[in-house]
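Hi! If you just cloned this repository, the fastest way to understand the data is to look at a raw example. We've pasted two of them here, unedited. The first protein comes first, obviously.
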Amino acid sequence: MYNNSKLFPKFILFLLLLCLQQQIIKAQAQECDIKKNSVVYYLNSLKCYKQFNFLEGPPLSSKYGQVQCVKIIYSLQDKQVYYTNSKMYRFHYDFCTAQLGYSQSLEYFNYDQYGETDKREFLLANLNYYTSSNKYIFEFFADDKIPTERVLQFYEKLKSTSYFGDKLCLMINSEEMMNKVADLKGKVPLIYPEDVYKFQKYQALNKEETYGYVHKINNYNVEKKTIGEHDILIVKNVPQDIPLIAGILTDQFQTPLSHINVLSHNRKTPNASSKGVWNNTIIDSLEGKLVHYVVKEDNYILKPALLKDAQKFWTIKSKGAAPIKLKLNTTVTGLVNMKDLSKKAVDIVGGKAANMGELSKITVGNKPLPVPEAAFAIPFYYYVAHIKKRNITDSINQILNSDSIKNNYTLLDAKLKEIRKMIKETPIDTSLIRMVEARIRKTKYKAFRFRSSTNSEDIENFNGAGLYDSKTGIIDDTTKTIEKAIKQVWASIWNTRAFQEREYFKIDHQTVAMGILVHKAFGKESANGVAVTSHIYRDDYPAYTINVQKGEVSVVFPPDSINCDQMIIGTRHISGSDNISIDYVTRSNLKPIGNVLTEKEIETLTSYLTAIKWHYYKIAPARLKYSYDNFSMDVEFKLDAVTRKIIIKQARPYN
């Protein structure tokens, strides 16, 4: 017979241990509890996620999605860390004045607490929990001159007072932090922006809402003819352009300043990226169905909708917008010099050429802004005269007077292709060719860039990014002739994407014309990029947003799975330093070591952006409704491969 008497004491011990464990768990839960309706200004330690969640508030910047933020402060006087109620205190300064007895002004606070002074009383940072990667990361302000020993001191205090201490990492996202890496390695776990970025699962690019029909597109170039204006596209990879649609949701992440997002921004249509959406069975079940699509900061909503709600939304969105007749001046003949152009010349040469004339007037440090060399413009006169030949105008009118053509993408696309073909095949005015060739022969260059410049692009309320074509013409070349380049640019005014965009904004096509900006062709590029002269992730903050890529890989039309350097440049040095603050969102995966631009090059580019922003702010009517910090220009630039000199390619309003 089996005797289990020896097991009985072990069983009792097991029960006792289990009871003790439950009591400990219960005690920890009680210790972690925050009483309902209680007012908590801060905690000196975090014992569980429940406490973190109670304190967390929205981050000041939305550069990453799905982030919970607690503002943290370490008092050097009382050696306490304060995990602040970040719903109550949006800024560190507010907490320090309300709870820690700080009595100086914000200006003094910024100078003393972020600068290189001996008056620092507090160490200030954000504690961010990235839900998609389950990472706790503390991050300093990009302009903070905090000494390395203070960083380590803060880290040790956070580690000892938090439930996630062993998981805590320090974000190396600024030049200040990068300069400290050698002294920090091995003492604190480090994490870089690109590491955070690659674990992100959601990206809110244009936070808008719409109603439309879910339309999954597997091969955009093949299937784009099936797309309707009320479609919400679900695509795996990011297309280089998008027709007139209600909204877009991509599986692959996008470059924030690419043409696809600039168009979404201009149209005010929702745009987001969500990894895994392409294989989402819920999305599959909505294929072809009417839905309500909303892009929010941390998630998107895509749910079935009623037709009456959609029709109401569509009616309100289109209501009250009268057809827009653009100003068109066809009296100016001959080639126009940049010095004779300004923003007011949009009705003569188009937005791109007019803006180049404006840029040519800007100086930085008593030197002219670096713009493309040997530039001039071909006015509208020659385009308008050209399309009057061979009944091109009759073919255009056939489209404009037929709703059945305009509302049928396949038919519209075919008709517009015929018009482009007629424009290219019709002989050009020989006097124009002689003038252009004579102008080019006076320079030391042979290859010139012929760039689209309509009166329906690069202007307030109509960006027109990527709608038209630019071509290269080479003097005495039998393939890339000057005549061919001019006619190709003229023909692009009738690109299907351009026609649809003008339809959407109710622009009268009869009043649209194509001028051409001509200048020396760009050589090989060390880098190319786009900048917006505001903080696109935060309102009312003095900063610029820059996307830049190595070499000639396009930022505005990025290839699949290619990331560029994305950075936020602070333009007011609150710490008192003369150096700019650089906050990296992610880095180029084409340059594994280092950044695409040097710190000196970023400083130079920033000085150019400031000059452009201030010049346009002074002359733009938009200044009446935008503060200076929120006033934005969209600026494209390049770095010459030989000299690494920055060239400003163009600038246009970014509303």
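Ok, and the second one:
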Amino acid sequence: MKNSVKYQKRYFLPDGENTDWLKADAPSHAPVWCSVDLRDGNQALVEPMGVEAKKEFFRMLTELGFKEIEIGFPAANETEFEFVRALIRENLIPDDVNIQVLTPAREPLICRTFEAIKGAKNVTVHLYSCVSHEQCKQVYGGGMSQAKELAVRGATCIKELAEKADCGNIRFEYSMESFTTADPKFSLEVCNAVLEVWQPTKEKKAIIDLAATVETCLPHVFASLVEYIRKNLAYREGVILSVHPHNDRGSAVAASEMALLAGAERIEGTLFGNGERTGNVDLVTLALNMYSHGVDPKLNLENLPYAASVYSCLTGMKIPPRQPYAGELVFAAFSGTHQDAIAKGMRHREEQLAAGEEPVWSVPYLPVDPRDLGREYERDVIRINSQSGKSGVGYVLERAYALTLPSMLKRDFSVAVKRASEKKSRELKPEELYALFVKTYVENDAFVSIKDTEYRRLDGIEATVTLEDKQTGGVCAVKGRGNGRIDAVCNALGTYLKRDYTVNGYEQHMLTEGSSSKAISYLSIRADGRSYWGVGIHDDATTASVRALCAAVNNMLCFSEE
């Protein structure tokens, strides 16, 4: 691209070796999660939420297990202020949840913030200021000394107001705006100056938050910056090191994971990554990435579709269908190859469980068990369209309707499924798949239907079949002999129709258990060099087989008419 010359790196590498994080392969435990949906996420909405919607969102966040929630910027406007007051006044904050309020390092706004939090039991006052040279110069018109002085004045103001505040436990947080475009030596200098004002202890900690306000560097550079700050912070035992990644480069999740390896203990982000520009880091993805490695994320995501629907309803934001874990299609397999691997993997796991084993999750193409997140195999995993194969078709019918189709019948039916899906130009739902199966193999009586059968034992079995000829409307009784009941009926139909065919496939199983169970029979006949299938369902196993034979014969006659 011709204009690339006007761009260059906008970050600084820290001094010294800051690569200890490379020695770890994955986070071993969950960080402290802080949702900023009600502040950072809300300000990014086309139509920000009102007080009642924010209450509902706050309630959902507590249900999901968040213990730290940034609820707003109370000095920004009356809605933000009133929401904070409403949560406190109406006693809507659980005792184990710490609310967080944001304020810039300006005394009048800090004072207004303390007015908002009167009566709060557990609250974090989150102070922020800019440490980026380019932003300080271009936006605030000042130099670096003024930037440091502003942060120290803000920290001092917060400390003095906290000593007089009508609140319970107050914790301090300092966040460096645009940390990723700042000189890390200056960032560290400002942090330590703020900490010198607050003098946190192991018993009363403060939070230092490294905000990638705009993501400008690769994830490994961000991790090195985090490690540099961690190694050189003053009052280290009294500090919780937090990160606040954004997603401008599409790397927020990777940057957050590497930051945890580098020593970050806390992460600020939003559900599904909502935020300004390309969004904040997606906390759901981060948490479930941990879960997929056997680490308990300490969040309640067992009913992810519910959380996603509430989120979309309150924010008006749509979750992309391929969003990790939460998207409608993330577990969906349309490809026949993928469906076959998943179906076989699921059966292998079921065999292991039946044998009393406790296998780790290893089903091909599924990084986590969809059921753990409130998803259904039948509707969310194997989905059927014109790209699907016989394994997927068989899997859906087995899971949703307890039909265990023979392999050759799966192959035969998959042709009909592809044809139907192509005609509709869309996927087929499980109920549509079943309806097509019934129409194709169970209810086909276009040429003949059997009304009654009687058997008697002679030299083998003689069957008297009362059948209706659908072409003429006539009803007649025909006889046939064979070495069994089905063979006898088969010969009777062949005699009447003057057609030669043989039974070349037959399987049967019970659809339900107990006294009300039904038998389902799958039967194939061969004529003129190809096979035709029929399916019968009845309380009586023999009657089910006779119905399957009749349906197969009708399919043969239908094919002959084409």
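That's it. A detail worth noticing about the second one: The chain has a mean pLDDT of 90.
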